[in-house]
């Protein structure tokens, strides 16, 4: 998205878990939605300026940004990542 310097960008996803980022990016790419990760996220983690809390987590959340006009479609695409998962009753076997 660096070729859109004047585009209005909005955050559609935020997480401290590094491992979920590739899944979120793949979902957006599959839907044809251009996106970027905020500088205070992954880039800082790679160069070592962020504090790693534990394996796969950071103190500051990573933010995935899209153009404002793509916000609704991106949120629809990322709904599985945004909605809380139903708790599984540990007493019941899953199939």
> What letter string, H or E per element, gives the SSE order?
EHEHEEHH
Number of helices: 4
CATH homologous superfamily placement: UreE, C-terminal domain
Q: Structural class per helix/strand content?
A: alpha+beta
Tally of extended strands?
Answer: 4
The average pLDDT is: 75
**Distance between termini?**
42 Å
Estimate the strand proportion: 25-35%
| Basic shape | globular
Show unreliable segments: 41-55
CATH architecture: 2-Layer Sandwich
Short descriptors:
4-stranded antiparallel sheet; about 100 residues; Alpha-Beta Plaits; 4 strands
Describe what you observe in this structure.
Helix content is about 30%, strand content about 25%. It has a single domain, classed as UreE, C-terminal domain (Alpha-Beta Plaits, 2-Layer Sandwich). The relative contact order is 0.26. It is globular, with a radius of gyration of 15 Å. It is an alpha+beta fold.
Summarize the structure.
This protein has 95 residues and is α+β, with helices and mostly antiparallel strands. The protein has helices at residues 21-30, 42-47, 71-77, 79-82; strands at 9-17, 36-37, 52-54, 57-67.
Set out the fold topology.
Layout: E1 9-17, H1 21-30, E2 36-37, H2 42-47, E3 52-54, E4 57-67, H3 71-77, H4 79-82
Antiparallel strand pairs: 1-4, 2-4, 3-4
């Amino acid at each position: 998205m660096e070729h859109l310097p004047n585009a209005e960008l909005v955050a559609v996803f935020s997480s401290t878990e590094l491992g979920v980022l590739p899944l979120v990016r793949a979902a957006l790419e599959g839907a044809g939605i251009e996106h970027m990760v905020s500088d205070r996220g992954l880039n800082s983690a790679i160069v070592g300026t962020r504090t790693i809390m534990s394996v796969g987590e950071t103190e500051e959340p990573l933010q995935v940004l899209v153009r404002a006009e793509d916000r609704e479609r991106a949120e629809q695409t990322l709904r599985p990542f945004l909605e809380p998962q139903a708790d599984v009753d540990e007493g019941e076997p899953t199939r």
